[in-house]
Write a structure and sequence with these properties.
single chain; alpha/beta; TIM Barrel; Rossmann fold; Immunoglobulin-like; 3 domains; 6-stranded mixed beta sheet; 5-stranded parallel beta sheet; 22 helices; 26 strands; binds alpha-D-glucopyranose
């Protein structure tokens, strides 16, 4: 590290003010080219026109480029992207100081901006596997593919804790629980940075998943306690895992937009958590301090406020003037040289750590070879399989017997690939169907049961025209989806399933054929009617490339579902927000009710697991770990995976505490009749909490531990 520090200082001593500022501005070349062409009447041949590159790299010294969700390059092949980034970096070598470039993009569920790449389940689905090793493996293979392309900064993982099911980005989050989110954050960051030439990005710091009305980017009112207990832990975990960049939530938290929050950007992130990497703003969020939040009256003041709050890089997108403005502010010493050097040093440190000064093997052959390769497909399959959550299975109607004769299959999503992927797929919101190449659910079912007659109807008109009473169907599989969306587009005030989808589902039900619902919903929507009336419900999140095959495997018993809900399923939009770990209040008349449709950590299996012999020490001294043992037996006739979850409840404490808190989990596979003893630890940290002075302490108190249906109490002495 000393060597890098020395190199940074040497470089800084050679850099002009403007060159330093250029390292702290992130430009989206596609947007910039369009703006210069349309607004400034400048003309360039293309993105790699030397005149255009000269403007960005020599006149403005830009050192960080992003390719947002809408960036599309030619046929979006791995070759095209690698070649382009290589040319950009080649040009950087002709600049005065030859500082290599950072390239950022949103590979948030696979290398989803490259056609043919394997698309994985989004984060909520990855989290529902409760399998951190699998999460790490998935992120590792994305890291490898990005490194070959030369995309060295991935704006992933999203590590937001989602506390309001109405939010359009719940599907990108790590669910509602800070402990599960922290474990997944650590795994995803380690995986995403497993290739030494790729920087991950923990986003969006912080509190983005709990705006006051659940809507995207709207103001949040968060107590210091909820910041410390709920929203900070995944970022602490990411920093401990060595995350190299953190993207800042553009929203206002307690009256201060995050990009302007010195307390949280410098006080907490740098001083309390010791983050040494780059803090970068989200899309034009510095200027939005002026344009949207109105906390300043000019773009100049916005830049001043953000950089003096501790932001290192302004995702200015197409606003080159931000370089000139910043140059003026530094000349006036409003942004000090010290602050500029700090921000620039953070950027250079990441570039040195990634080896970008030494390495530029943009490996086109490797990028093509890795794109959509079998290893990534197998991993995507495993993630999809382990994410699928069985929410209802009345009379064990599932798994379906492969000798079934006739199936009625309904829903447009059953014959769609883009609905299986959700947002951020070859585009900001939704891919074009023709750009995707993997099985649909209809195709996967035909392959799974080739002798069954599958009658497919995409909508209610086709169902009516079918005149079901004249045909015999053994079963109806009704696939319910939602239009792929991103960010605020996905906000829902009432968690309503799309009208056409629910109407078709109800019509399918009216046929009196038993209905199994397969929901391709990225997040919980109101499926209460389905739960009251249908025989079975599978939740597959956005299972993507290997999703259809995985759903077919689960439906027909070739895989025993093991997913567990990473977020509460409310009964309806009226229950929102509803989380399992709300602080408790108990009285005969009033309690902190937690009566959702499906709780956090819930999921059925085709087998059953019996828990016994929960053992914990009767008392634990302050500062000691608490060791827990429990036996789990598979008492069914199918192999199955079980997520053993450890919760604790403070019977009393100096502050009100959650109804219960997840403090440990592990996933085990059990053969029929196999029994395993699972050992879990409650560490000193797990047994500590923020007291009334917000000090992170342990207190003597009685704690109840619960694992499945077993509970035991112990004393912290
Ligand atoms: C968007 C998103 C962020 C993404 C960025 C760049 O506004 O909020 O998650 O990384 O822009 O595409």
């Amino acid at each position: 590290m000393e060597k890098i520090k020395q190199k940074i200082n040497e470089l800084l001593s050679n850099m002009s003010i403007r060159e330093k500022i250029g390292q702290c501005i992130m430009i989206e070349p596609f947007f910039l080219l369009s703006k210069l062409t349309k607004e400034n009447n400048e003309s360039y041949i293309d993105l790699v026109d030397p005149k255009f590159l000269d403007k960005m790299l020599n006149e403005y010294h830009i050192g960080f480029f992003l390719f947002g969700g809408v960036s599309s390059l030619g046929n979006d092949s791995a070759e095209e992207w690698t070649n382009y980034l290589k040319q950009m970096n080649e040009y950087a070598k002709t600049t005065r100081l030859k500082i290599p470039l950072l390239f950022g993009a949103d590979a948030v569920h696979g290398v989803n901006f490259v056609k043919g790449s394997t698309i994985f389940s989004h984060n909520l689905g990855v989290t529902s596997t409760w399998n951190t090793d699998l999460a790490k493996s998935y992120a590792s293979i994305v890291s490898k593919e990005l490194a070959a392309i030369g995309l060295n900064c991935n704006f992933a993982p999203t590590i937001d804790v989602a506390r309001d099911q109405r939010w359009g980005r719940v599907y990108e989050s790590l669910g509602e629980d800070p402990y599960l989110a922290s474990k997944m954050s650590e795994a995803l960051v380690l995986g995403m940075q497993s290739n030494p030439h790729v920087a991950a990005c923990g986003k969006h710091y912080l509190g983005y998943g709990e705006s006051s009305n659940g809507m995207d980017r709207t103001p949040a009112n968060l107590s210091e306690r909820s910041i410390l207990e709920t929203h900070l832990p995944p970022f602490e975990a990411a920093i401990k895992a060595g995350v190299k960049t953190i993207m800042v939530n553009g929203g206002d938290v307690n009256g201060t937009p995050m990009p302007a929050s010195k307390d949280l950007l410098t006080g907490v992130l740098r001083k309390k958590l010791g983050f040494k990497g780059i803090t970068l703003s989200d899309w034009e969020d510095v200027n939005r301090l002026y344009k949207r939040h109105h906390i300043v009256q000019s773009s100049e003041e916005a830049i001043l406020k953000a950089f003096n709050a501790g932001l290192d890089v302004n995702m200015a997108v197409s606003d080159l003037s931000s370089v000139d403005i910043m140059e003026k502010l530094v000349a006036e010493n409003k942004i000090t040289i010290k602050r500029l050097n700090e921000a620039c040093a953070n950027v250079l440190r990441v570039k040195f750590e990634l080896g970008l000064f030494e390495r530029d093997d943009f490996d086109i052959t490797k990028a093509i070879e890795l794109c959509g390769n079998l290893e990534s497909k197998n991993l995507a399959k495993q993630v999809a399989l382990e994410s699928i959550t069985l929410l209802k299975n009345k009379n064990n109607i599932l798994p379906i017997d492969k000798k079934i004769k006739s199936i009625l299959l309904t829903g447009k999503t059953a014959n769609s690939k883009r609905h299986l992927c959700g947002g951020w797929t070859l585009g900001w919101d939704s891919a074009k169907e023709e750009d995707l190449n993997f099985p649909t659910i209809l195709e996967a079912l035909k392959e799974k049961v080739p002798n069954a007659e599958i009658t497919y109807v995409p909508d209610i008109q086709a169902l009516k025209a079918l005149n079901v009473s004249n045909n015999h169907f053994d079963l109806c599989i009704s696939v319910v989806g939602e239009e792929p969306h991103s960010e605020w587009v996905g906000d829902t005030p009432d968690l309503a399933v799309e009208k056409g989808e629910i109407n078709l589902l109800m019509s399918a039900f009216k046929t009196k054929i038993p209905v199994v619902m397969v929901s391709i919903l990225g997040r919980p929507l109101n499926v209460a009617w389905a739960n009251d009336n249908l025989a079975a419900i599978l939740w597959a999140y956005y299972p993507a490339t290997e999703g259809a095959n995985s759903i077919a495997d689960v439906l027909f018993g070739d895989y025993n579902p093991s997913g567990k809900t990473p977020i509460t399923f409310p009964k309806s939009g009226n229950q929102v927000p509803i989380v399992y770990n709300a602080r408790k209040y108990n009285s005969p008349e009033i309690t902190t009710k937690y009566e959702p449709l499906y709780p956090f950590g819930y999921g059925l299996s085709y087998t059953n697991f019996e828990y016994s012999d929960l053992e914990i020490s009767d008392e634990v001294s302050l500062g000691e770990d608490c060791f827990i043992k429990v036996k789990v037996k598979n008492i069914g006739n199918r192999v199955g995976a079980e997520v053993v979850q450890l919760y604790l409840e403070d019977k009393y404490a100096s502050v009100t505490r959650p109804i219960k808190s997840l403090k440990g989990f592990t996933k085990i596979n059990l053969l029929p009749n196999e029994e395993k003893t699972v050992e879990l630890i409650l560490t000193k940290k797990d047994l500590s909490f923020y007291n009334d002075k917000l000090q992170f302490v342990q207190e003597q108190r009685e704690i109840e531990v619960s694992v499945a249906n077993l509970t035991k109490t112990f004393q912290v002495k």
